[in-house]
Write a structure and sequence with these properties.
Oligomer: homodimer
Keywords (chains A, B): DNA-binding
InterPro entries (chains A, B): Homeodomain-like_sf, HTH_TetR
Protein name (chains A, B): AcrR family transcriptional regulator
Radius of gyration of chain A: 18 Å
Shape of chain A: elongated
Largest sheet of chain A: none
Largest interface: A-B, 44 and 45 residues
Structural class of chain A: mainly alpha
Number of strands of chain A: 0
Organism (chains A, B): Paeniglutamicibacter kerguelensis
Pfam families (chains A, B): TetR_N
Helix content of chain A: over 70%
Chain lengths: ~180, ~180
Amino acid sequence: MSRPPLAKEKIIDAYVSMLCEEGERAATMEATAARAGVSKGGLLYHFASKELLAQGAIDGLLRTHEEDLQHMGSAPEGPASYFVRTSTVIGGELDRYFLAVLRLAQGGHEPSVKALEDVQEGWLNLIQLEVKDKYAAEAIMLIGEGLYYQTSMPGSWSTGTFGKDLDHLLKQVERLKNGN
Amino acid sequence: MSRPPLAKEKIIDAYVSMLCEEGERAATMEATAARAGVSKGGLLYHFASKELLAQGAIDGLLRTHEEDLQHMGSAPEGPASYFVRTSTVIGGELDRYFLAVLRLAQGGHEPSVKALEDVQEGWLNLIQLEVKDKYAAEAIMLIGEGLYYQTSMPGSWSTGTFGKDLDHLLKQVERLKNGN
DNA sequence: GTCTATAAGTCGATAGAC
DNA sequence: GTCTATCGACTTATAGAC
């Protein structure tokens, strides 16, 4: 896990951080290089184009997403509650990659849109294993996505209206889980 | 309502359309001028900076949002269902302004983030008049925002997974509205 | 009011020294 | 591997003709 040259990881980390904290427009190759502590030419040795840099962020998302599905599938509270609960907690490795790729997707980057669709499908499949009512499962998915919509607002890292009411929100999820 | 010079409206309309259809990055002043049928210099006579152009889009959002609150408050189905239902219907004047300002906000534009917070607060207040349970109202808001999260994906204009299941989704909203 | 021309700066990417 | 230097394209904004 720590074999590849250190510089590559530092660059991806800097790129993802800039996407999360300052948006896609600010995440230029020059700014990324400066934050990673290398020169622009040094960055381009490891990532020959901006497209390859974006692909690096997508790879990180898919890798951490697979790990997350393991945790979600074996969570004592069940996949649905696990999903909604972790939708509000920003700061983990998966969240950082997710938000970074979300920013790329919202900027029109097609491979990022595709990656997010795959991630979303993985979540929905697990939730539907627990919540048999298809439309209740979809409503729960939308609540989680609504929370991501909020955290995707620049400057509002985990300061959303709903973060502090998480326990009450999970009760609403319980009501959706238990059919009429 | 139709007093101000026609060119200004054409320019705002072109700017909003480009934000919606091709994203923030493509909505340059040059491209906006071309789409509005004026030259770059002609555009800058009406909007002296890109910031003022963005403010024009925000003004359009706040104006149409006030009109929407009237409809939402007097909707026979109630504000909550009206809100979720109209979250999936893209194409109206408000939706265009909302999506345009959302793109600006996601690009890090602070005045747009502030405007969206105000719009969101207006919606939540109306929903809470109907749905007394505060947390049920918040869950309904999140479902609507989850739908907006999907429509905010470039290239997926109203082709989301949930658009065709709207009737079933509204039944889930009904369950949240009627307390336990 | 609307245009052309251009200034001034930034972006991604290349070339070549060390 | 990492750097400096620089190119060509693009973006916002200004100046001034009509």
